[in-house]
Amino acid sequence: MSKHIAIVGAGPVGVVAALAAVQQGFRVSLYEAESRVDDSPRAATTHSSTLEMIARVGLIDRFVKEGLTARYFQFWDQAAQSMVAQFDHEILKDDTPYPFVVQTEQHKLGNMGIEKLRTYADAAVHFEHRITAVAQSGDGVTLTAQAPGGEVRIEADYVIAADGGRSALRKALDIPFEGMTWPERFIVITVKDDFERLMGCCYRNYLAHPDAWTNLFKISGDDMQGRWRAVFPSGVDETDEEALSDAAVARRLAHVFPRAEPYEVLHRNIYRVHQRVAARFRQGRVFLAGDAAHVNNPIGGLGLNCGIHDAMELVDMLAAVERGEEDASVFDRYERRRRQMNIEFVQQQTVNNKKRLEEKDPAVRAQALDDIRRIADDPQRHRQFLLRSSLIDSVRKARTIA
Ligand SMILES: Cc1cc2nc3c(=O)[nH]c(=O)nc-3n(C[C@H](O)[C@H](O)[C@H](O)COP(=O)(O)OP(=O)(O)OC[C@H]3O[C@@H](n4cnc5c(N)ncnc54)[C@H](O)[C@@H]3O)c2cc1C
């Protein structure tokens, strides 16, 4: 009988891991605490390297169809209301079959993945199963879940903990989550108004401003009618209530593009932002993946992308062990590869991206914007910048780590 992998968390990382695992011949059970996939506004930006993985699990056509394809992204000097530089993914056409970004909301990936998962006899999806405890012996893992009918015990050969930033499994295993929390929170505002028409920007935009930077991007929405999402920093001393008030929301949107009519606000949210990496990505037969293993600010759209890379690396490694091509000593390679890639590519880039957008010193700010303009103007540096920002370099580098 094939080995059993229990996956905790039906976020996008857990769902992709489950799909990859059943496709590699494992018996898979996916456990989600809630009764449905979380559809709050979170990740949408999916980079070329990750699109290649979504293609591997057989979801790419639907994923592209349910989202928006963004060939370009732009940096703006918001204080001057002018575009500084535009990057064009087409320059990566010899590096990837997907030389663009796809903006598809993460809950769509979760839902389409679960739908596909249900077509496999060896995959089971259990909503309303909250994992509360984990115990391990030498050759297996026992999970305890709180389910509608009472407590359930689950036996598995391996466990993938994809249970998000507050991971119950990471805490149960006593794995430190090292790093820091930013003093400001991030405000996410979704509007119906079309910023491309208003300001001539593209579908993905990073607006630098010494007082209040903005990330501005378009998503298709569940009705495919199009939405614009803007992410702003709160003031350090501003309360959540103040930041989410009608007046503050209107003021922030007017700061992006001033106009007489009010914006049509569809959704608003505020959340805490961290830069943290788990001290260990594996304990025995339990592996951490996605936000359970690492969290970061969303500037650059890298967190979920990195989580999907974790899922694919992990399942490929477990499958190679099951086929007898590798022995269990490669289990530690998962941590060596994925932890380093997260620190080197995701933590570093997202911290630098934030710093570039919020720089207050006028000379340093001018230099940073000038640097980005010069990178965009030089084809070789333009390509190198995109290889790094789309995590293609990270995939290539990970393969070299033994
Ligand atoms: C505003 C915003 C914008 C973002 N933009 C981007 C972007 O553009 N690109 C990008 O790459 N990343 C982005 N991110 C980050 C991205 O949203 C996360 O990295 C992503 O959600 C991680 O997925 P996950 O599956 O690891 O965890 P989650 O999506 O958090 O899923 C974890 C799941 O586990 C379940 N769960 C928790 N505990 C238990 C338990 N004990 N038992 C069973 N189930 C449990 C939860 O209910 C949840 O469904 C953004 C984040 C935010 C907040």
TrEMBL record:
Pfam families: FAD_binding_3. Keywords: NAD, Oxidoreductase. SUPFAM superfamilies: FAD/NAD(P)-binding domain (SSF51905). Residues 5-347 form the FAD-binding domain. This is FAD-binding domain-containing protein. The keyword Transcription does not apply.
